[in-house]
Design a protein that fits this description.
homodimer; mainly alpha; 19 helices; 75% helix; transmembrane helix (chains A, B); ion transport (chains A, B)
Chain lengths: 548, 548
């Protein structure tokens, strides 16, 4: 029996030990949690402070909100001390109005105010009618009220789901709320008229305070925000385009593509971020447009019916271009990559098209920012010339983009190439490449398979990254050498694809310029100030200075 | 002086006439407006009725909303008849809770309820502390209250602008509202505790009614909606892909591109609509995800921590593919179009890749719909084989994609082509094409310029359509013939681009399958039911049946 005793005493000892150690653990755990919580709070505070520093309008908005609430409270206190009616009971309406109506921008405040006013008014009229009806019902008064609440609730909830009713969703809510409160709470006091009147007065007080504070103290306009967003979009696409072209020419491959890009989530990659921001900004633009059309003429937008829709249209045309940048970036993400040497052949031309394209976008962005018309020259001329030079170069060197080895109509005779290679020594490096891609030297095949191998052997998977799997060429039971040849041909064509997409991007610029001109006309942009008569050379230098 | 008199009498007559005609005009104008209004109302009613028929859940939601409001009204009436306290004064809280909390889906209701509860609780505690403090202030009580309202309003408004606080925006609003009401209205009655308790009870009543009605009567789950949305997205991309490939092969050009497509707005074009829906659905997916993670296990999703995020991830991977379909559609929209005959050469292969790609997407969609794992075979095998065949064909016929006339390293000797053309008669039509593109026959140039002319001469502009301007080749002072050659070469390369993008699409499918497998594993999809042992042939037929 000793053993169990010993055992049990031993267990008891262990229990005590574990209990004390558990307590210790518990405390240290709690302590750790507290420290973590403190650190998180500090981190949050620092971030919140930075948010205010980077966009002081947010601080101003918060101050304005606090001020509006304080003014309403003061008014209620002041009214209470003079009148006999218990205004405090109804004070909720003024406060509710401020809290609900006080939006970041003036346009938002107007929309909410309109919704609130209309909803309250319609509900008030309807409640008055139904209340008179319910009084006629005698004993069944409450039954009539409950049924009317059901009917009103049903129709308002159903109609607010109607697609075109979305901007008035808040109005429907206010309508149902007002109706129910008037019927249910009013039923007790039987003072519908007084209740309705007091409510309307208090809502008007709240709305007035809102509007005065929001408009008079540092107004924040959605129109201005929309304008800036469109300008920013131009810069983003320009940066993304230049980034894509330059990275492509540097032949910097993604060894591991961030899984966020593959799932189209936000990522820090600058090229990706640029066009993604533009594609994603669509919803924001539409929200801002919805607010901006409610705003009165102000600041630089001194015109009724200001063409805000055209800003969104320009941005839409820009988005159509951004999709081409997206496709260009797709070439960078692709597993099938053109060999470095071949890219080098078209380097100058590709870079020029990229730079000119970005220049046009930046210039259009600047013009919108300054609200200026385009100058006398054709803004697209340079980029068109660059694209044409690229196309001609492709035309002249298209032998680099294909693999004549597999041609069914027969291979190009080697001798002739050699011959011409000797006779035309202007571009011997390129010639050599052309020659190589057409010959069957072992070196050539080796260099191609070397270019392919790294991506194929990358198989270690780390968190947040997808393996760059060699999913192409798909293993269809063919020999490795055959695969290599297929890959070589596909990789060369990928360069053609890149160039082709870039040219398509240039073609789409016309649409952006057209939209810009429509906007400039409708918004009456001023003529650009030119000190010197525009000569071709000067305007180019001037354009160049813009991109600096 | 007669003339003026005559003149004036004449004018008077005219005035009378115009007055009566004005009245008539006025009436007819009013009548017209009334008829128009009546027609619009009828149209709206019909549309609203159709909305209910197509999605009966909307009708059910509206009925539930009406029911919840009726129940709350009944409860308030019933309570009022028993108690002495004037509950009606506070009844607004129960009604407000129902109106605000009652969302379309269960998840949405939970989130709103959580926000409302937390906001009220925190505000109640804070108001209690400040109220005691303000009582100590004596005469300055109201000053303290107004200052506290400012501080609370400021901090709540500032913090709700913090990016990660967005889901709790409503909670902040409730917090400020509750705090202000308690301080301002409570100040009069000095019954903070009673006010807080009554409010909490009424909010609890409202919330309970909401939850019971919303969960017990035909619950609408966001998770189910998310699931269906992802399945629908697969079908949309598949349709869009097939549409793009088929239209491309049919060589149906957009004579006039709808300006809506150029500005990336909603359009009826089926190919465009398919991928646009998928790209646009991102926001909707994220909203549904935000609701779905709040929902308890239900229906087919009997698991805590159900991997809803993986549904969004699969959809993200699909979107990454959809961007390639977008780029393919870009080839259709492009001004630079490959000639019909050249497309015809690759017709079978292109169509097969398109069909197989769509088949894979549809199969994955069906699998997600049925919540089934993939079968034993490789779902991507067929599409990979098809892509490889396409690549090989391109490899063999890449002479069709380039223009050797401009080659700096010299033209292909014509004699040899002729020779081989004779010796290899298997594919004489293609050979002929290859030969044509390499020769300088007048016929060839004419056919190309004919292919180019229609788009260049389309210059009549109609509303909503952009002119298909010949903005490329850009007129750089070169001869028309030279332009034609450049165009010919660019147009051939456009076919290479299309094929290249299609192959890239196939490569991206791997990523979709990977995401699907991750989802299937986490969500514990069941194994597919196979009655017969899977042989290669049968599984193919089975796959084929799926696409029917």
């Amino acid at each position: 029996m000793e053993k169990p005793l010993l055992g049990s005493s031993f267990i008891e000892d262990e229990d005590e030990e574990t209990e004390s150690s558990r307590c210790m653990c518990c405390f240290s755990f709690l302590g750790q949690k507290l420290i973590e919580f403190w650190k998180d709070t500090l981190h949050f505070a620092v971030k919140a402070w930075e948010m205010g520093r980077s966009d002081p309008r947010k601080v101003i908005f918060a101050i304005k909100m606090g001020l509006a609430l304080s003014i309403v409270s003061l008014l209620i206190f002041w009214k209470n001390s003079f009148h006999d009616i218990d205004i405090a009971q109804y004070s909720i309406w003024a406060i509710l109005t401020v809290i609900v109506m006080f939006e970041f921008s003036i346009g938002g405040t107007f929309i909410k105010g309109f919704n609130r006013g209309l909803g309250t008014l319609v509900a008030g009229i309807l409640a008055f009618c139904f209340a008179e009806l319910s009084l006629l019902a005698g004993n069944l008064e409450e039954v009539v009220i409950v049924i009317s609440v059901f009917i009103v609730g049903f129709f308002a909830s159903y109609l607010k789901l109607y697609p075109t009713m979305k901007p008035y969703e808040y109005g429907f809510r206010v309508f149902v709320l007002t109706y129910c409160i008037l019927m249910v709470a009013g039923n007790r006091t039987r003072e519908y008229r007084e209740a309705v009147a007091t409510r309307l007065v208090l809502i008007a007080v709240g709305a007035t305070v809102c509007l005065v504070v929001n408009i008079c103290i540092y107004p924040i306009w959605s129109g201005e925000d929309l304008h800036n967003l469109v300008v920013k979009n131009f810069k983003e696409v320009a940066t993304s385009l230049e980034g894509c072209v330059n990275e492509y020419l540097k032949s910097i491959e993604y060894e591991r593509i961030p899984s966020k890009i593959l799932a189209y989530q936000a990522s820090d990659d600058p090229m990706y971020k640029g066009y993604r921001t533009v594609v994603e900004s669509k919803i924001q633009e539409e929200t801002l447009l919805g607010f901006a059309i409610w705003e009165p003429p102000h600041g630089r937008y001194r015109m009724f019916n200001y063409p805000w829709k055209n800003y969104v249209k320009v941005s839409g045309a820009l988005r159509h271009c951004a999709f081409m940048v997206m496709a260009l970036h797709g070439c960078l993400l692709s597993e099938i990559q053109a060999p470095v040497e071949k890219r080098r052949v078209f380097r100058t031309e590709l870079r020029r098209v990229g730079a000119e394209g970005a220049k046009v976008l930046r210039e259009l962005g600047k013009k919108i920012e300054k609200m200026e018309n385009l100058g006398p020259g054709d803004v697209l001329k340079d980029v068109h010339v660059a694209a044409e030079i690229l196309q001609k170069k492709i035309d002249q060197r298209s032998y680099l983009l294909v693999n004549s080895e597999s041609w069914e109509i027969g291979r190009r005779p080697r001798e002739q190439v050699d011959l011409e290679n000797v006779s035309d020594s202007r571009d011997s490096h390129d010639m050599n490449l052309g020659f190589k891609s057409l010959s069957e030297t072992v070196l050539d095949l080796r260099s191609v398979s070397a270019a392919w191998t790294p991506s194929a052997t990358l198989s270690a998977s780390s968190e947040g990254m997808f393996r760059n799997q060699p999913s192409w060429p798909f293993d269809g039971g063919v020999s490795k050498e055959e695969n290599c040849t297929t890959y070589e041909s596909a990789s060369a064509l990928s360069l053609a694809t890149f160039a082709s997409l870039l040219i398509e991007f240039v073609a789409r610029l016309q649409n952006v310029v057209d939209s810009f001109e429509e906007l400039a006309e409708k918004a009456k942009f001023r003529e650009p100030i030119l000190n010197t008569p525009p000569t071709k050379k000067k305007s180019r230098i001037w354009c160049f200075m813009f991109t600096m």
